[in-house]
Write a structure and sequence with these properties.
Layout (H helix, E strand, L loop, with lengths): L1 E4 L6 H10 L4 E4 L24 E3 L5 E3 L1 H9 L11 H23 L9 H16 L14 H10 L13 H11 L2 H9 L2 E3 L7 E3 H6 L10
Parallel strand pairs: 1-2
Antiparallel strand pairs: 1-3, 3-4, 5-6
């Protein structure tokens, strides 16, 4: 299988799931400006929407949209409860919440086109994060078990330093980030995408070039 991705983007979520499950996956980088892949392909011919992730199966079929991809990958594993188990619906509920209420609004904070309403967007995200902070059922979203929803949340919250959102005000979420960042397979995924930690706790990660452009100083810590 091939996972079309961009370092530190939402494609990191299915990448983490592949690592957690020990799946044999080929990572294919996508240039978001040219829509060309590291293999010289026209990515728009693979995913007409142009964004990552996309998963190409061994038979050539392509699956898009991160929440669908991670459920496909994790089916039958401990990372996704079985059909008929209410815990599965809880995980799916979190996947929907993350994609609609966190992922998409946070992406807008990276886009200067929406700069005039960034304050309002940030206020909405903060409201959602406050709710989520009070909902954490344990070290992970649904309790003691790490699921596909946790990987997705980790990736979205990893963008918070670059969107001027301070997770320190929500201790449960900050603790969640540290918990997920410490998982060995998560560290493998971060290493494979050449992401570096810049904070003392080793909780947030970004490409070295992006850290430099954001004015971060000091020696990054390798994950």
């Amino acid at each position: 299988m091939k996972l079309y991705m961009h370092a530190a983007a939402c494609s990191l979520s299915p990448h983490i799931i592949c690592r957690e499950l020990g799946l044999d996956i080929e990572l294919v980088q996508v240039d978001r400006q040219t829509h060309r892949t590291s293999k010289g392909e026209d990515y728009l011919a693979i995913n007409g929407n142009g964004y990552v992730p996309a998963l190409m199966l061994d038979d050539g079929k392509v699956l898009t949209e991160g929440p669908a991809i991670v459920q496909f990958l994790a089916e039958g594993s401990a990372l996704l409860p079985d059909v008929g188990n209410l815990s599965r619906n809880e995980v799916q509920s979190y996947l929907n919440f993350i994609t609609a209420e966190l992922h998409k609004p946070m992406v807008l904070l990276f886009n200067p086109i929406y700069s005039s309403v960034h304050g309002e967007i940030r206020a909405l995200i903060s409201k959602r994060l406050a709710w989520l902070n009070g909902r954490l059922a344990g070290p992970y979203l649904t309790g003691d078990a790490f699921t596909v929803a946790d990987a997705y949340l980790f990736v979205c919250l990893n963008w918070s330093p670059w969107t001027d959102i301070d997770l320190q005000q929500w201790p449960a979420l900050h603790g969640f980030m540290a918990q997920v960042a410490a998982r060995p397979k998560v560290r493998e995924a971060l290493q494979a995408e050449d992401l570096e930690a810049f904070d003392a706790d080793g909780v947030y990660f970004a490409p070295h070039a992006y850290l430099a452009s954001a004015g971060r100083t000091g020696e990054p810590v390798r994950p």
